[in-house]
Amino acid sequence: MQGRGRSTLPGAARTPAHLVTGPEEPEPVRQPDVDSSLCPFGYFRLGPLKNCSPWLSCEAINTEVRKLKCVGEGAVKKVFLSEWKENKVSLSQLANSELKDDFLHGLKMMKSLQSKYVVKLLGYCEKQFTILTQYHPLGSLKSLNEMLDLPRYKGLNTWHRRFMLAIDYVSIIHYLHNSPLGTLVMCDSNNLDKVLSQYLLTSDFHVLVNDLDALPLVNKSAGRLVKCGHRELQGEFVAPEQLWPYGEEVPFEDDLMPPYDEKTDIWKIPDVSNFFLGHVEGSDIVRFHLFDIHAACKKKNPAERPSAQMVMDTYRKILTLLLREAAMPGTREML
User: Fold this and answer.
1) Cα angle for residues 99, 215, 75 (degrees, 5° grid)
2) Residue 168 pLDDT exceeds 70
């Protein structure tokens, strides 16, 4: 990457000038508001429909929604590509009756957290353990690299677009940590694959959180901390405070495992962002600029890690800086 007379960040020089002028954050950082933000609580708008419709009831789901095929199955639910009034939709149904409490918790979160960060809720039937949401054909973030390898998306496989996805992800973590319900911890995150499976990639290449089954509430002032499940967690991906602290000589016992707070999500941000950035030209320059904030995220003491707000603000400042430098012809190399 060295030895060029122009910016080392390819593609960014073609960024429209309005994205890189002035002190404000660049426009691509913001997700466009999804339709749900324009409808009152309990209503949605989908596709070409102009009016807000109330969330579909049990009766409407049973009579108006047609299942097409199963497109995914996890521990808690099965997901079916379905059709409603010529719109493709996603129908989730409970897969394991022993996990109905998790399913209902996910539904409660889905209803309460509707925003531009969360997949759009179209309806639900609590007694039949069914949830209807907007369908996103690109699927979960697990398929990101495969999508960007397809000819139709190769033009999006740039450091700029990938970094914007990382900013979307951190913005969602910030939203969960500052949600209308309080500070929520993303517990379904014990390895990278598990994290990626909780989020969807939209057709306009943004990130939405889709799986809200494991979102416990932290309330430090009331002394309320969390534990992600009742089994021993292992590996470097989870935060140090999520590991059994008493050594191999003491058998794991859930009652003895100390609880923790939302800073477990901060520990995981560098690993998830590293996945987003991939190995395209320019991504190493982005990593170089993220080094300090990522080192802070990996502090062993959770209290020393930055808040999601601080990470999000730093990411946005770095994007603005890189776009400005890349848009200026003859910019000296950053490394």
Assistant:
1) 30
2) yes
Answer yes or no: is 190 within a domain: yes
Residues 40 and 176 in one domain: no
User: CA 58 → CA 34, 65, 87, 100, 266, distances in Å?
Assistant: 25, 10, 18, 17, 39
pTM equals 0.86
CB atoms inside a 10 Å sphere around CB 273: 24
Closest CA to 104 of 81, 130, 123: 130
Residue 19 lies in a domain: no
Instruction: For the beta carbon of residue 174, count every other beta carbon within 10 angstroms.
Output: 19
CA–CA gap between residue 40 and residue 8 (Å, rounded): 46
Closest CA to 91 of 113, 76, 63, 71: 71
H-helix or E-strand containing 322? helix 308-327
State the Cα–Cα distance between residues 117 and 178, nearest whole angstrom: 12
pLDDT, tens digit, 9 for 90 and up, residues 242-271: 999 999 999 999 999 999 999 999 999 999
Which domain covers residue 171, as residue numbers?
Answer: 139-327
- 199 and 169 Cβ atoms separated by less than 8 Å: yes
Task: Return the number of other C-beta atoms located less than 10 Å from residue 321's C-beta.
Answer: 14
CATH number at residue 154: 1.10.510.10
